[in-house]
Amino acid sequence: MKNQNSNLTSFSDHLDELYGLPGTTEREKYELGFEAFKLGVMLQEMRKEEGLTQEQLAERCGTSKTYISRIENDASDIRLSTLIRIIQQGLGKKLTLSIEP
Question: C-alpha distances in angstroms, 68 versus 25, 34, 38, 77?
């Protein structure tokens, strides 16, 4: 019986083909966009876990519903000070950062 998985491509190989190898300009652009996307999803999940609407979260941290929506959906650029305010004041959580080599 022939192995049906012989034509499968790893996700890493797929990214290499679409965006180039790690370290290239296109791949770095993709990686940054993906990190922003993950941040938006994380914020949306935390907001929903707290039972908050986008408008309620925005009121708590002094920003607009539109801005919260843009972060969650478009993963728009977000200032660190705003991110901290959303996490601490809006969600009552603590933000910790790490840097990897």
Answer: 29, 18, 14, 11
Residue 4 within a domain = no
Q: What angle (nearest 5°) sits at the alpha carbon of residue 89, between those of residues 50 and 92?
A: 45
The residue whose two tokens read 């986008």 is: 54
Range of the domain at 59: 12-90
Give, as one character, the DSSP assignment of residue 86: I
Give, for all 101 residues of the chain, the pLDDT tens digit.
445 666 788 989 989 999 999 999 999 988 888 888 888 999 999 999 999 999 999 999 999 999 999 999 876 678 889 999 999 999 999 999 889 88
Structural domain contains residue 95 = no
Give the total number of structural domains in the chain.
1
